[in-house]
Write a structure and sequence with these properties.
Domain FMN-dependent dehydrogenase: 177-340
Number of helices: 14
EC number: 5.3.3.2
Strand content: 5-15%
Bound molecules: flavin mononucleotide
Subunit structure: Homooctamer. Dimer of tetramers.
Binding site for Mg(2+): 166
Structural class: alpha/beta
Oligomer: single chain
Pfam families: FMN_dh
Order of helices and strands: HEEEEHEHEHEHHEHEHHHEHEHHHE
Number of strands: 12
């Protein structure tokens, strides 16, 4: 194994360690969801047990509008995490994003990495989202990316754009010049729809304006705003690289999730939209859905339960979905379209 490959594998495991034990949440930035409240209705006419959370995302039905966020793959521990999360997703009828499949594109490591991403046997029905970085999204890699998605049985490819994370990383991919053109040119060459995501620093109005500049249409099928307020990847990378926070201002830089969501939804009223970044409770999810998201995604809070067992991951997610259901009940929304019609109110 070359030193570079060893680095890739050990960095993934360091990410997991730091995310479990480190202080990786934003300090000075919140999601902004606390600035909204759901309109509670003491005269709701709903029956809690009948509240319908069913949704559809990119053509795949979901029993609740929830995705397991993109986290991991490649190492043995990643395989355990992915299988436990996938088992939970199958039981609950929700979707799941895999972590970066970059390692699968490596000629030497790729084959060995496949089992850690292979979850279709335990999750035959879930919406499964593959993952690759925008900095690995090159024409030469497209056949390999298609093959990597085929091999895991993905429905969709998430392409993550993470300039701040990469800039904080030792030997990160810091050349994003031409990446927008590549998105336009290469997405039609894929056999899968593309969901563009950040990793927790946010996609907002400026990025959407850039996405639309070339043709007036986004070159992607869906967007995950992955905003600020939850896990800060600038913070994670600094802790991994220096063992301390050397650039605190950069660790707290990003577009709050609620703001990113409102900006993208206003520019693209119909695009399938994921709200993520600091989504921690069913109430956070309900507010994000009321503000225009189609589904929400949760990453870091699922790490510990996923390492423990499929039952622990299922219990965490079930509690989250139960709370979301109560939120709809409490504001008189029998289903997600009704929640969206009610909206969320700014706290004055
Ligand atoms: C351990 C870990 C690994 C991650 N790896 C990836 C990845 O490979 N690809 C990706 O697009 N996002 C990755 N993310 C980012 C998450 O998908 C998400 O965008 C971010 O953590 C913000 O969500 P959160 O506040 O719920 O954690 C990772 C997150 C965690 C916690």
């Amino acid at each position: 194994m070359t030193a570079q490959r060893r680095d890739m594998a050990s960095r993934k495991l360091r990410h997991i360690d730091v995310c479990r034990d480190g202080d990786v949440t934003y300090h000075g930035v919140t999601t902004g969801l606390e600035r909204f409240r759901l309109p509670y209705n003491g005269l709701t006419q709903t029956n809690l047990g009948d509240v319908d959370l069913s949704a559809e995302f990119l053509g795949v039905p979901l029993r609740a509008p929830v995705l397991v966020g993109a986290m991991t793959g490649g190492a043995e521990l990643s395989g355990t995490i992915n299988r436990n999360l996938a088992t939970a997703a199958q039981r609950l009828g929700i979707g799941m994003m895999l972590g970066s499949q970059r390692v699968m594109l490596d000629s030497a490591l790729g084959e060995r990495a496949v089992p850690s991403f292979a979850v279709r046997d335990v999750a035959p029905d879930v919406l499964l989202v593959g993952n690759i970085g925008l900095s690995q999204f090159f024409k030469d890699a497209i056949p390999e990316i298609n093959r990597a998605l085929d091999r895991v049985g993905a429905n969709v490819l998430a392409v993550h754009t993470n300039p701040l994370q990469e800039a904080m990383q030792d030997n990160g991919d810091t050349d994003f010049a031409g990446s927008l053109d590549r998105l336009h040119d290469l997405t039609p060459m894929l056999d899968y729809p593309v969901l563009l995501k950040e990793v927790g620093h946010g996609i907002g109005a400026n990025a959407v304006a850039d996405l639309l500049r070339l043709t007036g249409e986004p070159p992607v099928a869906a967007i995950d705003v992955a905003g600020a307020g939850g896990t800060s990847w600038s913070r994670v990378e600094q802790l991994v690289r220096y063992g301390e926070l050397r650039y605190p201002d950069l660790a707290d830089w990003g577009i709050p999730t609620a703001q990113a969501l409102l900006e993208v939804r206003s520019a693209l009223p119909r695009i399938p939209l994921v709200a993520s970044g600091g989504i921690r409770t069913g109430m956070d999810a309900a507010k994000a859905l009321a503000l225009g998201a189609d589904v929400v995604a949760i990453a870091r809070p699922l790490l510990d339960p996923a390492i423990e067992s499929a039952d622990a991951a299922t219990a965490w997610l079930q509690g989250f979905i139960d709370e979301l259901r109560i939120c709809l009940h409490g504001c008189g929304a029998a289903d997600l379209p009704s929640l969206r019609k009610l909206g969320a109110l700014p706290v004055t």
